[in-house]
Design goal:
single chain; two-stranded antiparallel ribbon; 156 residues; globular; mainly alpha
Amino acid sequence: MRPRPGLRWLSARIEASGVARSLFTQTERLTKQTLFGCRMCGQCALPVTGYVCPMGCPKELRNGPCGGVGADGGCEVYPDRRCVWVEAYERAAGQGQAADLRLLHLPIDHRRWGQSSWLNYWQGRDEGLWTDEAGDTGDGDTGDNVPHRQPVLGGS
């Protein structure tokens, strides 16, 4: 999931202008909020969550549902709502992309709230946003180990 080189060039030009960056970010916010319930975390997970924003979860869980999902798919915190992860699974499965939900998300960098995730992605600031699939340590072991070899955001 790497951006095209032309988008890196374009995003650098957008970021160079305060006005263009502000307009671009506002357009992204309005578009993604309307279509996907985006919260503008600056580190978009929509492509791997069936285009359901995981930040819509009251607990802001980015790696799957909590243990309180009702049998009807209801949210533990707001029982009148469906769990965002149930919706994510249904959408991803409907697109043949349910396996994407096995990608583990690194913890969110709260310094990016309100930033354009598109500009962050195009500039390569989101590289390594996801680790291997859950249980895949890359060593051939198919146990239930969670990979811990990925660098933390800002680390090397």
